């Protein structure tokens, strides 16, 4: 499953217009690879500073564009986010 996240004010329509091309590209692989690459796309509006998904529901998160916004975060909010990230890393290492 692939979850795309952005603020609720963003327009996901343009992104979803590219999905047929994305799925068409998946058809070129053999049947076994196709089963491994079954992809379900969903848009999840909300801020990445708040909980977006239930506990234990996400295995990997990649946020390349969010780095730009982290530079604009106040120092106190950044410290809280850093503590939260360290706690998440410790939890993942235990698992």
Automatic annotation (TrEMBL):
Which InterPro entries has this protein been placed in? MeTrfase_7, SAM-dependent_MTases_sf
**Per UniProt, what is one GO molecular function of this protein?**
methyltransferase activity
Positions the record marks as coiled coil are none
What is the top-level taxon of the source organism? Eukaryota
Q: What is this protein called?
A: Caffeine synthase 2
Originating organism: Acorus gramineus (Dwarf sweet flag)
């Amino acid at each position: 499953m692939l979850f795309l996240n952005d603020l609720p004010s963003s327009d996901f329509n343009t992104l979803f217009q590219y999905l047929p091309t994305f799925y068409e590209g998946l058809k070129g692989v053999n049947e076994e690879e196709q089963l491994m690459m079954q992809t379900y796309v969903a848009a999840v509006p909300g801020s990445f500073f708040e909980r977006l998904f239930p506990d234990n529901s996400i295995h990997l998160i990649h946020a390349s564009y969010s780095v730009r916004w982290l530079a604009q975060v106040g120092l106190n909010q950044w410290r809280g986010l850093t503590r939260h990230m360290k706690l998440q890393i410790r939890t993942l290492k235990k698992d």
